[in-house]
Specification:
Ubiquitin-like (UB roll), 653 residues, RACo_linker, binds FE2/S2 (inorganic) cluster, Nucleotidyltransferase, domain 5, 17 helices, six-stranded mixed β-sheet, Na(+)-translocating NADH-quinone reductase subunit F, Raco-like_middle, Corrinoid_activation_enz, iron-sulfur cluster binding, alpha/beta
Amino acid sequence: TTDPLVVFTPSGKRGHFPVGTPVLTAARQLGVDLDSVCGGRGICSKCQITPSYGEFPKHGVTASENALSEWNAVEQRYDDKRGLKSGRRLGCQATVQGDIVIDVPPESQVHRQVVRKAATARAITMDPATRLYFVVVEEPDMHSPTGDLERLERALREQWNIDAITADLSLMSKLQPVLRKGKWEVTVALHKGHKDEAARVVEIWPGLHEHGLYGLAIDLGSTTIAAHLTDMETGEVKASSGLMNPQIRFGEDLMSRVSYSMMNPGGDQEMTKAVREAINDLTTSISEEAGISSELIVETVFVCNPVMHHLLLGLDPVELGQAPFALATSESMSLPAREMDLTNMNPRAQVYILPCIAGHVGADCAAVALSEEPGKSEDLVLIVDVGTNAEILLGNTSRVLACSSPTGPAFEGAQISSGQRAAPGAIERIEIDPVTKEPRFRVIGSEKWSDQEGFDQEIATSGITGICGSGIIEAVAEMRVAGLLDESGLIGSADQTGTPRCVPEGRTHAYLIHDASAEGGPRITVTQGDIRAIQLAKSALYAGARLLMDEMNVDTVDRVVLAGAFGAHISTKHAMVLGMIPDAPLNKVSSAGNAAGTGARIALCNIGARSEIERVVREITKVETAIEPKFQDHFVAANAIPHKTDPFPELSQ
Ligand code: FES
């Protein structure tokens, strides 16, 4: 053929096209990922490309400046109005004139990659369920009387190949005025799920809608609720925010909330109402923080443990209070946000809840599996997601096991005398000098250590508010290493330890980290009660991990991943000194940050990931800690720091 050769980068896709073919058309025919919201009308600018002229021996093309058409009036108008970056053309306007290599920049790709922070993590590929489509709808006509919705549907079919649409009554009431206001040109946001249902019209705007679409990824924990507001076109996180779960007033941990529901008729509904209101408040505050209208939030993905799952959905969790721990459903759910009284987002926003695994192993664990992919690991990897309930996964390509362990809220700073949520003012890092036994610490919001020059005096006197989860983990581990604690967790007296910082407190002792009278600010100590709370939490965590190792028939693991809402900050070394996790070479222990939250983001940005996790959870074997007698034995043995019997050879090095 003598037609010019067109090569697209970075995909490398190529083909011959007749002179005059628009670049967007060529891209479509070759299956090149080039975005378009306006369908080639030259108004959305999503289709920008960069022609590369010069020698391309690799591609066998010699392109010239004349290989694309001159600017046309549409491009000129666009450039005059908003400006095109230098060297950029609109792919729907520029036509092929000769051999050419065309680069599609990342922002013009629908399925662009969103890079995650952790170096080992795979990128998130954008493929959202809700997308924007600009359409030109035929005007009504006396002679062919069809409804406006039917004409919108036909326009979507002809211009975008979309088969069938549905619209609910609240959308119907906007349809007619918006079509007329836009002079029959409108943008619709269509939600198309991964399960073959008809596309649903979520929103309609007159003309071209240019203010984007947003989604929320929410990790609904027993103690904290964390949300990420995400741009559904770019995948960028616009704001992250969190608050305490207001259900705490009904019970600190899951089982006490289940019993609240058992003892109080209507108690489950009270808790449902409380958590939904908190999510509504969080939705409003996070949109304000990001400076967007909350009406633009069209999708929300939830990950949570089974009790939170039921209470969010308004289902009584009573069956989760006793064996066999039957869930109302373990399947994923897709439903309108309005059905859950989530009123502070778009009225037609869609909610997706990840599937639960079984019993007390929930959607949060599924989200960790989606984020960390234990089933794709050649090495045997142990993943612990630390929270009020720890989600634990152990596996590799041949098999994945999962359990949930009731650690209690100590790792999140609750039930600790000076404990608090990770927020500015919280001590998050602590070191204790093994010789002088003097502490130094760092506070969230300050870069400096307390003994460094430049440590903010204001913080020292009035800005310190308490210790967060990662801080208390480090404090206990450092106390053990400095000899202030014995193996059983008992704090020694000033005489025994040789430091006046070990002060009497009732019949026990406490370690003084920050003294109010001498140093200003609050008095912050680690008490014997705090040590006991951390011991209980870490024993539960360790026992859960050991139970999975027994089940897998192994004594060691190749790799450990520590995750949690504050997982990025847990020091892996301190976690091991404490015996939170089994012994492993320290360079094989990594932090994954909030893996459950990341799993929620992946499911928010990519509909394929929803099918994937629904398949993966069916292959995960659940181990129920509550009915396993060996759990109790492991729990008792793990009470010592780091452990009563299990060796920690890596630690002694
Ligand atoms: Fe919208 Fe080209 S496709 S401007």
